[in-house]
Amino acid sequence: MPASEAPEPEAQPSSAPASTAARGSRPAFDPYDPLGLDDLLSAEDRAVRDTVRRWARDRVLPYVAEWYEAGRLPAIRELARELGAIGALGMPLTGYGCAGASAVQYGLACLELEAADSGIRSLVSVQGSLAMYALHRYGSQEQREQWLPSMAAGEVIGCFGLTEPDHGSDPAGMRTRARRDGSDWVLDGRKMWITNGSVAGVAVVWAQTPDGVRGFVVPTDTPGFSAPEIHHKWSLRASVTSELVLDGVRLPADAVLPGAAGLGGPLSCLNHARYGIVWGAMGAARSCFEAALGYAKEREQFGRPIGGFQLTQAKLADMALELHKGILLAHHLGRRMDEGTLRPEQVSFGKLNNVREAIDICRTARTVLGANGISLEYPVMRHATNLESVLTYEGTVEMHQLVLGKALTGLDAFRG
Ligand code: TGC
Ligand code: FAD
């Protein structure tokens, strides 16, 4: 609604201080930012967001439906280098060519990338928040210097192998083993559903050792390592997903990440990737909301735009509520991460809420578009099917419910 049509403000009580009335004019209502959340951003935040938004609009949006239909991400290496050039890889990390951005800025980048496609945000999440974060936080100086600059530039792609065929939600039971042979380590096992696996130059692999779970930095040209790609996915089709096969992979003593001992190592990396998803999911939701709003204003049935029907308006209003509440939540968590107060349970809160709401928004948008909702000519079904993966990876809905349940009650329900 133009500002000139906005209803008059309620009369101020006569006792209201003069400054209340003089607090500036109300901006026009913006259907794309109904709460004025843009005001929470600094000029630098907006610049980061706009750079990533432009890149995604130019380099992903025109092609992504084709990639999705083909079930391939043919330009992945080129895209990785471009993402490196705009500072999107390992964005909140410092040194080694990383951008040293704030958590909020990283979140905004995830939102813009996932507004294009969850597969692109996945590429960035796994590279930056999982593989690079593990090296940055737990690696030796030599490991950081060897890998991080080329990963920040997108010249080397990384992957993160935690999940196994028989151990997904419960990684504590993993069977991949690392044993000592002289001073070397020898790794045997299999990892499953690994994003970036078959295009990675380096894999961070988690394995059982006599001292508990440890992380290993595995150059993917090491004999005994292979990463067959997983096909026939109906979700995350514009993303590379692979198995990792470790068959007597011999590594030098210094391949272990010295700073990580126990399951807390990989789980703390997950906090960062899950945080990115809290924002990213709202990008997919925003794209679907915008598609539905545009369609509702154009499409006519019974002689009028479907956006004029109350039932369509109720859908749009509810979608807008959850979309912008989700962005507000993401921003709040980002500020906590920036000040160092963000707890893992709060990340679970955000991941659980925002992915669940995003999928609901996409499904509702699908109904607004009628039959066109299932067409790849619109982004809606692609986002909705992508979000089925996002709902599962980085901890399923049930895992995050149980994390919150445990925090609320003090009772651990994971094992019955
Ligand atoms: P539990 O006994 O609770 O904890 C073991 C140790 O870990 C510590 N810990 C954490 N530390 C940091 N952050 C967290 N979020 C942590 N959660 C637990 C904990 O304090 C303990 O430390 P210590 O020192 O006492 O040993 O572990 P549990 O076996 O009961 O499991 C807990 C549970 C179920 C929450 C955890 O296993 C879990 O999160 N499961 C879900 C697995 C998962 O999310 N996998 C994701 C794989 S990576 C991926 O999906 C990438 S997709 C990315 C993309 O493409 O975008
Ligand atoms: P399971 O753990 O077998 O769970 C099956 C169902 O049982 C779920 O609904 C689950 O919530 C439920 N369940 C399990 N335990 C309980 C319980 N105690 N109480 C109630 N319900 C329970 N992993 C990586 O390590 N690296 C990656 O890069 C990566 N990328 C991925 C990319 C894609 C496209 C996908 C789909 C997955 C990826 N994953 C990756 C794996 C992902 O993290 C796992 O799929 C996820 O953790 C769930 O594990 P699972 O699929 O084995 O399901």
From TrEMBL:
Region (Disordered): 1-30
Short name of any one Pfam family annotated for the protein: Acyl-CoA_dh_1
Cofactor entry: FAD
Keyword NAD applies: no
Aminoacyl-tRNA synthetase keyword on record: no
UniProt cross-references to SUPFAM superfamilies, sorted A to Z: Acyl-CoA dehydrogenase C-terminal domain-like, Acyl-CoA dehydrogenase NM domain-like
Sequence ranges assigned to domain Acyl-CoA oxidase/dehydrogenase middle in this UniProt record: 159-249
Family, similarity comment: Belongs to the acyl-CoA dehydrogenase family.
Entry-linked PANTHER family: GLUTARYL-COA DEHYDROGENASE, MITOCHONDRIAL (PTHR42807:SF1)
Protein name, UniProt field: Acyl-CoA dehydrogenase family protein
